[in-house]
Amino acid sequence: MDIYQHFRSEEHSFIDQVLSWKEQVERYFEPKLTDFLDPREQQIIEMLIGSARDELQLKLFGGGSHSERKRAIIAPYYEEITNNTFNISLIQASYHEKFITIAHRDVLGAFLSLGISRKKLGDLYAGDGKIQILLDKDIASYVQMNLTGIKRATITFEEVSFDKLIEQKSVWNESEKIVSSLRLDTILKEIYNLSRKQAQDLIQKGMVKVNYRLVEDGKFILREGDLISLRGKGRSKLVEVNGQTKKKN
Known about the structure:
The structure is a single chain. With 249 residues, this protein is an alpha+beta fold. The protein has three domains: 3-85, 2-Layer Sandwich (Ribosomal Protein S8, Chain: A, domain 1); 87-164, RRM (RNA recognition motif) domain (Alpha-Beta Plaits); 184-237, RNA-binding S4 domain (Structural Genomics Hypothetical 15.5 Kd Protein In mrcA-pckA Intergenic Region, Chain A). The protein is 25% helix and 24% strand. It has helices at residues 12-28, 39-49, 104-112, 140-146, 184-192, 196-204; strands spanning 32-37, 56-61, 70-76, 88-94, 121-127, 130-136, 149-150, 153-154, 158-160, 208-210, 213-214, 227-230, 234-237. The strands form four sheets. A four-stranded antiparallel sheet has the order 5-6-4-9, covered by helices on one side. A four-stranded antiparallel sheet has the order 11-10-12-13. Strands 1-3-2 form a three-stranded antiparallel sheet. Helix 1 crosses helix 2 (39-49) and helix 5 packs across helix 6. It is flat.
């Protein structure tokens, strides 16, 4: 059976990467630690490694109980894995929220301006006068030395223990909709109470992502499990398609 038929074409390169990691672990009996993965990538790696659970183990950890972005370890079944094995650090800084407002996008932008890949960064928090970043321990010192300002604020990061982590638990509201198709513009229109034109404009302006990837085609067909994010409006998930009606001529 062709494994690729269950996934979109843009996911095939990641599938190849996961299968390569799996082969390396099976051949050399050495654990493989990945960079931080988004939830869709985590879902894919669980699907691909699940069939080999007798010989291999797969563990995911992002620093906290509700972490969204996580690192994965593929290892022989006998390997002992602890949270320390994931090589994650938590760094924290304070700022005067009375004089400046710092948002998630400000911290992310400042981090990326250092020339570091997004994959080295886990979840981050900005609010109430605090900034927290979960990241690859190997680059923690570099970030502490070089990320010294965000917007107009002078920032000094220090490494802190995971028990200081400010957890961000997602809260979802479930609703059922009747739609004419599973096109992205149609679903966006229903979820966010937009006109079709508004939905199409937002998509074309690059404000919509599906499974953390920018989609600029309103005709893009959604599937069960897809995560949709609209900039400034939050995120939604297509949990289940209950059925499709047929038009009669």
